[in-house]
């Protein structure tokens, strides 16, 4: 029974993390209307890719500590 509770906790945390990432990405995309992230990534803009990677790592650390 304890394994079931653990799995449920992991799934809830995973869902909260994914929803948090999507929500914060949409907010950041809304705050920067002059920059279209998908188009810049298709153009192989490395600086945008590095920026988004840093953003996701930072958000992951914040959401991870909040979920615990």
Identify the notable features of this structure and list them briefly.
85% helix, mainly alpha
Mean residue pLDDT: 83
Query: How much of the sequence is in beta strands?
Result: under 5%
Task: Report the principal-axis shape.
Answer: elongated
* Sheet/helix structural class: mainly alpha
Radius of gyration: 15 Å
Structure summary, number of beta strands: 0
Output the helix-strand order.
Answer: HHH
The residue ranges in which pLDDT falls below 50 over 5 or more consecutive positions are none
Taking the alpha carbons of the first and last residues, their distance comes to 21 Å
Question: How many structural units, i.e. domains?
Answer: 1
Q: Tell me roughly what share of residues is in helical segments.
A: over 70%
Tally of alpha and pi helices: 3
Largest beta-sheet details: none
List the SSEs and their pairings.
Layout: H1 2-31, H2 37-42, H3 46-67
Helix pairs in contact: 1-3
Describe the structure concisely:
This protein has 68 residues and is mainly alpha-helical. It has helices at 2-31, 37-42, 46-67.
Task: Give an account of the 3D structure.
The protein is an all-alpha fold and 68 residues long. It has one domain (2-67). The chain contains three helices and no strands. The protein has helices at residues 2-31, 37-42, 46-67. It is elongated and about 50 Å long. The chain starts with a helix and ends with a helix. 0% of the residues are buried. The mean pLDDT is 83.
């Amino acid at each position: 029974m304890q394994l079931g509770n653990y799995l449920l906790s992991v799934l809830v945390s995973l869902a909260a993390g994914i929803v948090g990432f999507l929500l914060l990405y949409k907010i950041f995309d809304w705050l920067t209307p002059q920059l279209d992230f998908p188009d810049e990534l298709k153009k192989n803009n490395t600086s945008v890719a590095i920026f988004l990677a840093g953003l996701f790592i930072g958000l992951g650390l914040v959401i991870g500590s909040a979920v615990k």
